[in-house]
Task: structure prediction
Amino acid sequence: MEFADKKLDGSRIAAEIRDEVSAEVAILTKRGVIPRLDAVLVGEDPASKVYVGSKAKTLATLGMISETHHLREDASQAELETLIDRLNADSEVDGILVQLPLPGTIDAAEIFGRIDPVRDVDGFHPENVGLLQQGRPRMVPCTPTGIMEMLRREEIEIKGRRAVVVGRSDIVGKPMAMLLLHAHATVTICHSRTRDLAEVTGQAEILIAAVGVRSLIGPEHVADGAVVVDVGMHRVTDLETVERLYPGNEKKLAAFEKRGAVLAGDVDYTRVAPKAGRITPVPGGVGPLTIAMLTANTVKAAKLRRGL
Result:
């Protein structure tokens, strides 16, 4: 079953955001400003290459400029810092993105702290983190911002509702909780040491699963009618697991036969969807929103740098 009546369609909303960004880019271009994003990729991680390529392609379709700087796997901290300094000094660069994960020899916190905070399209610089906490958001991480846009455009009430975020990463969990708090939700953050996870998540009217564990969230974790947002993205390459996660789902089985893998989330979609009020699929839920908000942040950075 597809549960179309319950689906939160991230792909459709991302398309709306891209259309709005494209219109803004057209206006800026007439004023002689073409927003530019420079991405930094360290190493040969296949998924990272795909992500960076997808981001560059999307930016190009919206009339923006994108350039990728590829450093070898054994690049030093100093080499990466030198590149960041050069991009910070380049007046043509509006946004800087350092693709994660970085090799273990690189101090990611130092790198993100070195990026010009106005060009920090990922929203990871300590200055941007602090502004978000104060309720004065400037550059905010793309995934949580995209989720908030989805909730707003789907007219899902946040004010006064109980929200639970499963996961406390700096990339999603913490900023997600802060955005929900600023939208007047009552927010709880769960993590690997939370006792009786189902008892806590079962109280959520809005449940955000961003823990990075495939199919962790089952029906026992979800209240009847809850809004469930699945941030997880896991590649499943075992047919037995696919059949267990998606029993009778011919589309998933056909996709597995064609590609040798399917994507699954942190939520056990097949078992949770009947209980949820609204739910994001994987793929087609949060993923497209993340890239859409990256394009929006790039335009925002271009305007901020010029006082527009």
